[in-house]
Amino acid sequence: MKAAILKKYRLIIKTMGYVGWSLFWLLLWDIAVTVDFMLFLNAKVNLPLMPLTLLGSALIVLISFRNSSAYNRWWEARTLWGAMVNNSRSFARQVLTLLDDPGSEVNPIKSTLLRRHVAYVNCLAAHLRGEPCPDEVRAFIPAEEFARNGATNNFANDILTGSAAILSREYKAGHLDSIRLARIESTMVDLSNAQGGMERIANTPLPYPYVYFPRLFISLFCLIVPVVWWNPWVGSHRWPPPWWALCCWPSNALAPTCKARSAPANTRSRWKPFAKPSRKTCNRCAVTPSPIPPSADHALPSSECPLGR
After folding, report:
1. Is the pLDDT of residue 83 over 60?
2. Distances in Å between the alpha carbon of 241 and those of 16, 19, 229?
3. Which of 29, 213, 262, 302 is most buried when burial is the number of CB atoms within 10 A of its CB?
4. What digits encode the pLDDT tens for the residues 29-78?
5. Do residues 159 and 119 touch, judged by C-beta distance below 8 A?
6. Mean pLDDT in residue range 160-164
């Protein structure tokens, strides 16, 4: 019971930290309008309610449509990342079961491919956020290959291509037949398709007017509401509380929510799969996340590495 109450309390604190400033500034504006009308303004401003009502109705429809579009982008990104996780499991299982072992020993290429895949997922997460490849990837790929990450604009894709080259080398060595190679390649194609979909979402933001104008209209609406709604209170001779902030707060709070959901790979979106994928991916790929340097004997040769082309 105590844990549930504490969890709800933390959720409320996080929500207020996310949209609390908008409510705070709206409250200050409402107090300023109230004090101005009650103490200083002699000539009362008389604004009709009908235009504001129509504007509010149209604004709610626009905000709802924008929120739906932003959520659809977020949900598609979440679905694609889920496909990345599922295909990573399949890739790890296929590498462990379809690659032949030389004699009684375990094929060391299996460990190399799984480590490369962990590096691939970490580099992909950083690539989607527009950040450089993290240094922790050094533990999973050769240092020579990691040093070339600045020579390409899509290092994650090059790691995946390098893994495909290693599989091709295993096929030529007789550790894979054509049927098993085609099955693993099909899984890697699914990984590439999921990566392409996430890159499309990350590299294609919502149009600027589509983001700017709703925010502008919301701000104007929240500024006008206290001035227009003051007149009904004047006739009743009551001291009106500054409660208009609560009326404008839902529409004003949706703006940062839509902005965060429209860019799910952004670090400010608070979406954990993009933030820290390494440990989950390591566990799901049956790879230990400890920084064990890969063997240089099983590294991709420079002549076959796509980064060297």
Report:
1. yes
2. 21, 21, 12
3. 262
4. 777 777 776 666 555 566 677 777 777 788 878 888 888 888 888 889 88
5. yes
6. 93
Question: Is 228 exposed, middle or buried, given 0-12, 13-18 or 19+ CB atoms closer than 10 A?
Answer: middle
DSSP 23: H
- Of residues 54 and 233, more confidence is placed in 54
Return the structure tokens found at 224: 């006008």
The residue behind tokens 């109450």 is 5
Q: What angle do CA 242, 247, 248 make, to 5 degrees?
A: 100
Q: Which candidate, 20, 71, 129, 14, places its Cα nearest to that of 259?
A: 71
Which pair of tokens denotes residue 96? 């462990």
Please, are residues 80 and 198 in contact by the beta-carbon 8 Å criterion? yes
How many helices (DSSP H) and strands (DSSP E) are in the chain?
10, 0
> Residue 68: in which H helix or E strand, if any?
helix 49-98
How far is it, in rounded angstroms, from Cα 89 to Cα 83? 10
Give Cβ neighbours of residue 275 (< 8 Å, ≥ 6 apart): 125, 267
Residue pair 88/281 in contact (Cβ under 8 Å)? The answer is yes
Token look-up 């979909």 returns 197
